[in-house]
Write a structure and sequence with these properties.
Elements: H1 2-19, H2 26-31, H3 37-45, H4 48-53, E1 58-62, H5 76-84, E2 87-88, H6 94-98, E3 104-108, E4 123-129, E5 132-137, E6 146-155, E7 159-164, H7 196-200, H8 206-210, H9 240-243, H10 250-272
Parallel strand pairs: 1-7
Antiparallel strand pairs: 1-2, 3-4, 4-5, 5-6, 6-7
Helix pairs in contact: 1-10
Bound molecules: 2-acetamido-2-deoxy-beta-D-glucopyranose (NAG) (3 copies).
One 2-acetamido-2-deoxy-beta-D-glucopyranose binds near residues 104 and 106.
Length: about 270
Protein backbone atom coordinates (compact mmCIF):
# COMPACT_ATOMS: atom_id res chain seq x y z
CA UNK A 1 0.00 0.00 0.00
CA UNK A 2 2.68 2.43 1.05
CA UNK A 3 4.80 1.60 -1.97
CA UNK A 4 2.02 2.50 -4.33
CA UNK A 5 1.70 5.98 -2.93
CA UNK A 6 5.43 6.51 -2.85
CA UNK A 7 6.08 5.56 -6.44
CA UNK A 8 4.21 8.48 -8.04
CA UNK A 9 5.91 10.75 -5.57
CA UNK A 10 9.24 9.33 -6.57
CA UNK A 11 8.41 9.83 -10.24
CA UNK A 12 7.41 13.42 -9.79
CA UNK A 13 10.59 14.13 -7.88
CA UNK A 14 12.64 12.69 -10.68
CA UNK A 15 10.69 14.65 -13.28
CA UNK A 16 11.25 17.79 -11.31
CA UNK A 17 14.96 17.10 -11.12
CA UNK A 18 15.11 16.42 -14.84
CA UNK A 19 13.12 19.47 -15.89
CA UNK A 20 15.25 21.79 -13.83
CA UNK A 21 18.26 20.73 -15.87
CA UNK A 22 18.14 23.97 -17.87
CA UNK A 23 21.08 26.11 -16.98
CA UNK A 24 19.51 29.31 -18.24
CA UNK A 25 16.80 30.63 -20.50
CA UNK A 26 18.46 32.12 -23.57
CA UNK A 27 15.13 33.45 -24.82
CA UNK A 28 14.70 35.43 -21.66
CA UNK A 29 18.28 36.66 -21.57
CA UNK A 30 18.29 37.78 -25.19
CA UNK A 31 14.82 39.23 -24.71
CA UNK A 32 16.41 42.03 -22.73
CA UNK A 33 18.18 43.25 -25.86
CA UNK A 34 15.66 44.47 -28.46
CA UNK A 35 18.40 44.76 -31.08
CA UNK A 36 18.48 40.98 -31.24
CA UNK A 37 14.75 40.28 -31.24
CA UNK A 38 14.80 38.70 -34.70
CA UNK A 39 17.75 36.49 -33.88
CA UNK A 40 15.98 35.52 -30.68
CA UNK A 41 12.81 34.59 -32.54
CA UNK A 42 14.82 32.48 -34.95
CA UNK A 43 16.50 30.64 -32.09
CA UNK A 44 13.08 29.71 -30.75
CA UNK A 45 11.58 28.94 -34.14
CA UNK A 46 14.40 26.55 -34.99
CA UNK A 47 14.19 24.82 -31.64
CA UNK A 48 17.78 25.71 -30.95
CA UNK A 49 16.90 27.80 -27.89
CA UNK A 50 15.90 24.65 -26.03
CA UNK A 51 19.16 22.94 -26.91
CA UNK A 52 21.13 25.96 -25.80
CA UNK A 53 19.26 26.03 -22.51
CA UNK A 54 20.42 22.55 -21.75
CA UNK A 55 24.04 23.49 -21.80
CA UNK A 56 25.97 25.04 -18.96
CA UNK A 57 28.67 26.77 -20.96
CA UNK A 58 28.03 28.58 -24.17
CA UNK A 59 29.04 31.54 -26.31
CA UNK A 60 26.31 32.80 -28.57
CA UNK A 61 27.36 34.75 -31.64
CA UNK A 62 24.32 36.93 -32.09
CA UNK A 63 23.37 38.93 -35.15
CA UNK A 64 21.57 42.26 -34.68
CA UNK A 65 18.24 42.76 -36.44
CA UNK A 66 19.74 45.10 -39.02
CA UNK A 67 22.29 42.53 -40.20
CA UNK A 68 20.15 39.42 -40.10
CA UNK A 69 19.97 39.33 -43.91
CA UNK A 70 18.16 36.43 -45.47
CA UNK A 71 18.37 34.22 -42.41
CA UNK A 72 14.70 34.91 -41.85
CA UNK A 73 13.74 33.29 -45.13
CA UNK A 74 15.54 30.00 -44.59
CA UNK A 75 13.71 26.75 -44.25
CA UNK A 76 13.58 25.60 -40.65
CA UNK A 77 16.04 22.86 -41.38
CA UNK A 78 18.67 25.10 -42.95
CA UNK A 79 18.02 27.78 -40.37
CA UNK A 80 18.75 25.42 -37.54
CA UNK A 81 21.99 24.31 -39.13
CA UNK A 82 23.14 27.83 -39.77
CA UNK A 83 22.19 29.06 -36.31
CA UNK A 84 23.86 26.11 -34.65
CA UNK A 85 27.15 27.27 -36.15
CA UNK A 86 26.63 30.48 -34.16
CA UNK A 87 26.71 28.65 -30.87
CA UNK A 88 30.20 28.01 -29.52
CA UNK A 89 30.46 25.20 -27.00
CA UNK A 90 32.80 27.08 -24.73
CA UNK A 91 32.94 30.36 -22.92
CA UNK A 92 34.56 33.29 -24.72
CA UNK A 93 34.28 36.88 -23.64
CA UNK A 94 36.39 39.71 -25.07
CA UNK A 95 38.97 39.30 -22.34
CA UNK A 96 39.43 35.64 -23.13
CA UNK A 97 39.62 36.42 -26.84
CA UNK A 98 42.37 38.94 -26.20
CA UNK A 99 44.39 36.31 -24.40
CA UNK A 100 44.18 33.83 -27.29
CA UNK A 101 47.45 32.17 -27.96
CA UNK A 102 48.78 33.19 -31.40
CA UNK A 103 45.77 35.53 -31.65
CA UNK A 104 43.70 32.83 -33.24
CA UNK A 105 41.52 30.00 -32.04
CA UNK A 106 39.53 27.16 -33.45
CA UNK A 107 36.21 26.85 -31.68
CA UNK A 108 33.76 23.99 -31.68
CA UNK A 109 30.23 24.97 -32.57
CA UNK A 110 26.95 23.23 -31.91
CA UNK A 111 26.62 21.92 -35.45
CA UNK A 112 29.48 19.58 -34.68
CA UNK A 113 27.13 17.73 -32.34
CA UNK A 114 24.54 17.10 -35.01
CA UNK A 115 26.66 14.27 -36.33
CA UNK A 116 26.23 15.76 -39.79
CA UNK A 117 29.17 18.10 -39.80
CA UNK A 118 31.72 17.34 -42.46
CA UNK A 119 35.24 18.61 -42.61
CA UNK A 120 35.44 21.67 -40.45
CA UNK A 121 31.80 22.70 -40.63
CA UNK A 122 31.56 22.06 -36.91
CA UNK A 123 34.32 24.53 -36.16
CA UNK A 124 34.84 28.25 -36.27
CA UNK A 125 38.03 30.17 -36.72
CA UNK A 126 38.40 33.32 -34.67
CA UNK A 127 41.35 35.54 -35.43
CA UNK A 128 42.48 38.90 -34.08
CA UNK A 129 42.38 41.48 -36.83
CA UNK A 130 42.63 45.26 -36.89
CA UNK A 131 42.09 45.62 -33.18
CA UNK A 132 39.04 43.44 -33.24
CA UNK A 133 38.23 39.83 -33.98
CA UNK A 134 36.83 38.14 -37.03
CA UNK A 135 34.84 34.95 -36.96
CA UNK A 136 34.24 32.55 -39.76
CA UNK A 137 33.76 28.93 -40.57
CA UNK A 138 36.92 26.88 -40.19
CA UNK A 139 36.14 25.18 -43.50
CA UNK A 140 38.97 25.71 -45.93
CA UNK A 141 38.35 28.70 -48.15
CA UNK A 142 35.45 30.01 -46.09
CA UNK A 143 35.01 33.74 -45.76
CA UNK A 144 36.02 35.05 -42.40
CA UNK A 145 34.54 38.47 -42.15
CA UNK A 146 31.98 38.37 -39.39
CA UNK A 147 33.46 41.01 -37.18
CA UNK A 148 33.04 41.13 -33.44
CA UNK A 149 31.18 44.37 -32.79
CA UNK A 150 30.68 44.14 -29.07
CA UNK A 151 29.92 41.98 -26.12
CA UNK A 152 26.19 41.99 -25.45
CA UNK A 153 26.38 40.34 -22.05
CA UNK A 154 28.30 37.72 -20.21
CA UNK A 155 28.11 35.71 -17.09
CA UNK A 156 31.48 34.05 -16.55
CA UNK A 157 31.98 31.25 -17.20
CA UNK A 158 28.60 30.08 -18.30
CA UNK A 159 27.24 32.31 -20.99
CA UNK A 160 28.62 35.01 -23.20
CA UNK A 161 26.75 36.74 -25.99
CA UNK A 162 28.92 38.42 -28.61
CA UNK A 163 27.50 40.56 -31.37
CA UNK A 164 28.74 39.94 -34.90
CA UNK A 165 28.53 42.27 -37.87
CA UNK A 166 26.99 39.61 -40.10
CA UNK A 167 26.01 35.95 -40.11
CA UNK A 168 28.75 33.37 -40.42
CA UNK A 169 28.63 31.55 -43.72
CA UNK A 170 29.58 27.91 -43.46
CA UNK A 171 30.12 26.39 -46.91
CA UNK A 172 27.82 23.52 -47.66
CA UNK A 173 25.17 24.31 -45.09
CA UNK A 174 23.27 26.52 -47.43
CA UNK A 175 24.64 27.63 -50.77
CA UNK A 176 22.36 30.63 -50.97
CA UNK A 177 23.36 32.41 -47.82
CA UNK A 178 25.46 35.31 -48.94
CA UNK A 179 27.00 37.81 -46.57
CA UNK A 180 24.67 40.76 -46.24
CA UNK A 181 27.07 43.57 -46.86
CA UNK A 182 29.34 41.89 -49.36
CA UNK A 183 29.29 43.13 -52.94
CA UNK A 184 28.16 40.49 -55.42
CA UNK A 185 31.43 40.24 -57.33
CA UNK A 186 31.11 36.77 -58.72
CA UNK A 187 27.37 36.57 -59.06
CA UNK A 188 27.58 36.92 -62.81
CA UNK A 189 30.61 34.82 -63.31
CA UNK A 190 29.68 31.64 -65.10
CA UNK A 191 32.74 30.05 -63.55
CA UNK A 192 31.02 30.04 -60.21
CA UNK A 193 28.17 27.90 -61.42
CA UNK A 194 28.71 24.38 -60.22
CA UNK A 195 28.73 21.61 -62.75
CA UNK A 196 25.29 20.03 -62.59
CA UNK A 197 26.84 16.66 -61.98
CA UNK A 198 28.03 17.73 -58.59
CA UNK A 199 24.57 18.32 -57.32
CA UNK A 200 23.80 14.68 -57.83
CA UNK A 201 26.52 13.50 -55.60
CA UNK A 202 26.19 16.32 -53.19
CA UNK A 203 25.62 13.96 -50.33
CA UNK A 204 29.22 14.31 -49.54
CA UNK A 205 29.76 17.97 -48.84
CA UNK A 206 33.34 17.45 -49.80
CA UNK A 207 33.07 19.17 -53.14
CA UNK A 208 31.33 22.11 -51.62
CA UNK A 209 33.75 22.38 -48.80
CA UNK A 210 36.84 22.12 -50.89
CA UNK A 211 35.94 24.31 -53.79
CA UNK A 212 35.76 27.96 -52.84
CA UNK A 213 33.97 28.79 -56.07
CA UNK A 214 30.94 26.90 -54.93
CA UNK A 215 30.44 29.13 -51.97
CA UNK A 216 29.44 31.79 -54.38
CA UNK A 217 26.91 29.70 -56.13
CA UNK A 218 23.38 30.93 -56.12
CA UNK A 219 21.94 27.55 -56.79
CA UNK A 220 19.80 26.53 -53.84
CA UNK A 221 21.77 23.37 -53.53
CA UNK A 222 19.61 20.63 -52.15
CA UNK A 223 22.77 18.85 -51.19
CA UNK A 224 22.26 18.69 -47.49
CA UNK A 225 18.56 18.24 -47.86
CA UNK A 226 19.12 15.15 -49.88
CA UNK A 227 19.39 13.57 -46.51
CA UNK A 228 20.96 10.23 -46.74
CA UNK A 229 18.97 8.05 -44.38
CA UNK A 230 22.07 7.10 -42.52
CA UNK A 231 24.16 10.13 -41.67
CA UNK A 232 27.51 8.92 -42.79
CA UNK A 233 30.07 9.17 -40.06
CA UNK A 234 32.71 11.26 -41.63
CA UNK A 235 36.15 10.13 -40.85
CA UNK A 236 37.56 13.49 -41.79
CA UNK A 237 35.69 15.51 -39.27
CA UNK A 238 37.65 15.20 -36.11
CA UNK A 239 35.72 14.74 -32.92
CA UNK A 240 35.25 17.91 -30.98
CA UNK A 241 37.61 16.88 -28.27
CA UNK A 242 40.47 16.31 -30.64
CA UNK A 243 40.58 19.90 -31.74
CA UNK A 244 39.68 22.01 -28.82
CA UNK A 245 39.86 21.56 -25.13
CA UNK A 246 37.00 19.35 -24.11
CA UNK A 247 34.09 21.29 -22.81
CA UNK A 248 32.66 19.13 -20.15
CA UNK A 249 29.28 20.17 -19.03
CA UNK A 250 29.88 20.31 -15.35
CA UNK A 251 26.44 21.60 -14.69
CA UNK A 252 24.71 18.70 -16.38
CA UNK A 253 27.02 16.29 -14.70
CA UNK A 254 26.35 17.90 -11.38
CA UNK A 255 22.64 17.81 -11.93
CA UNK A 256 22.79 14.22 -12.97
CA UNK A 257 24.64 13.45 -9.79
CA UNK A 258 22.10 15.39 -7.83
CA UNK A 259 19.30 13.50 -9.52
CA UNK A 260 20.97 10.20 -8.80
CA UNK A 261 21.51 11.22 -5.22
CA UNK A 262 17.86 12.11 -4.93
CA UNK A 263 16.95 8.80 -6.44
CA UNK A 264 19.09 6.94 -3.95
CA UNK A 265 17.59 8.83 -1.05
CA UNK A 266 14.07 8.24 -2.26
CA UNK A 267 14.79 4.64 -3.06
CA UNK A 268 16.04 4.05 0.44
CA UNK A 269 12.93 5.78 1.74
CA UNK A 270 10.88 3.32 -0.24
CA UNK A 271 12.98 0.49 1.05
CA UNK A 272 12.37 1.41 4.66
CA UNK A 273 8.61 1.17 4.18
C1 LIG B 1 12.06 31.27 -21.30
O1 LIG B 1 11.69 32.61 -21.32
C2 LIG B 1 10.63 32.90 -22.23
C3 LIG B 1 10.45 34.41 -22.27
O2 LIG B 1 10.59 34.98 -21.00
C4 LIG B 1 9.38 32.17 -21.76
O3 LIG B 1 8.32 32.43 -22.67
C5 LIG B 1 9.68 30.68 -21.75
O4 LIG B 1 8.57 29.98 -21.23
C6 LIG B 1 10.90 30.39 -20.89
N1 LIG B 1 11.25 29.00 -21.04
C7 LIG B 1 11.52 28.22 -20.01
C8 LIG B 1 11.89 26.82 -20.33
O5 LIG B 1 11.44 28.61 -18.85
C1 LIG C 1 42.35 30.88 -38.81
O1 LIG C 1 42.45 31.41 -40.11
C2 LIG C 1 43.61 32.22 -40.32
C3 LIG C 1 43.56 32.71 -41.72
O2 LIG C 1 42.39 33.46 -41.93
C4 LIG C 1 44.85 31.40 -40.06
O3 LIG C 1 45.98 32.22 -40.20
C5 LIG C 1 44.80 30.82 -38.67
O4 LIG C 1 45.89 29.99 -38.46
C6 LIG C 1 43.53 30.03 -38.47
N1 LIG C 1 43.47 29.64 -37.09
C7 LIG C 1 43.20 28.40 -36.71
C8 LIG C 1 43.22 28.16 -35.26
O5 LIG C 1 42.94 27.54 -37.52
C1 LIG D 1 28.19 27.56 -14.77
O1 LIG D 1 29.35 26.83 -15.07
C2 LIG D 1 29.89 26.16 -13.98
C3 LIG D 1 31.18 25.53 -14.42
O2 LIG D 1 31.75 26.24 -15.46
C4 LIG D 1 28.89 25.11 -13.50
O3 LIG D 1 29.40 24.45 -12.36
C5 LIG D 1 27.57 25.79 -13.14
O4 LIG D 1 26.61 24.82 -12.84
C6 LIG D 1 27.11 26.59 -14.32
N1 LIG D 1 25.94 27.34 -13.94
C7 LIG D 1 24.80 27.19 -14.58
C8 LIG D 1 23.68 28.07 -14.11
O5 LIG D 1 24.68 26.41 -15.51
Amino acid sequence: MMNRSIVPLLCSFLLLAASSASAFNITKILGQYPDYSTFNELLSKSGLATEINHRGTITLLAIPNGAIGDLTSKSEDVLKRVLSTHVVLDYYDPMKLKSMKDKTAKMTNMYQQSGKAAYDQGFLNCTAKDGSFVFGSAVKGAERDSKLDKSVMNQPYNISILSLSQPIVTPGLDGTLAPVSAPPPKANSPASAPPPAEEEEAESPEEEAESPSEEETEAPSPSEDADSPAPSPDADAPPADAQSPPTPSPSSAGKLKASLGLFVVLASMVATY
